[in-house]
Write a structure and sequence with these properties.
Blueprint (H helix, E strand, L loop, with lengths): L1 H23 L10 E8 L10 E5 L11 E3 L3 H4 L8 E9 L9 E9 L2
Parallel strand pairs: 3-5
Antiparallel strand pairs: 1-2, 1-4, 2-3, 4-5
């Protein structure tokens, strides 16, 4: 009987230690970016809804996706200091739901220049 109590006590201690160990673990994995893209240059067209930057999204799964989208921003506002185009980027984005969305504009929520 005493032998059985020692085994169950040891088993409980081992389980307790594993529980402490696994509860202290934290996931440090950073979520990847949603898409890869290439900023090809400034939109220099002269029209009421033009301006910003042209970007091509490489893995765009949008139905009937256009050849490029427009970003209603410039490089400094995106936090990009590069001056030569094309600029390869990883980004999180969504379709613009305002009136600019009809003209192919997107909203960039997170962006990072890649080499």
């Amino acid at each position: 009987m005493v032998f059985c109590r020692n085994i169950s006590m040891r088993f409980a201690i081992v389980i307790f230690c594993f529980g402490i160990f696994f509860s202290a673990c934290k996931k440090t994995e950073v979520a990847p970016y949603q898409s890869q893209g290439v900023i090809t240059g400034y939109d220099t067209r002269m029209c009421p809804m033009c301006g910003g930057l042209f970007i091509t999204i490489k893995n765009d799964t949008t139905k009937n996706a256009p050849a490029h989208y427009d970003i209603n921003s410039d490089l400094p506002h995106l936090g990009i200091s590069a001056t030569k185009f094309p600029i390869n980027v990883s980004l999180n984005w969504m379709h613009d739901t305002s009136s600019l969305g009809r003209y192919g504009y997107i909203i960039v929520t997170k962006i990072k220049v890649i080499n």
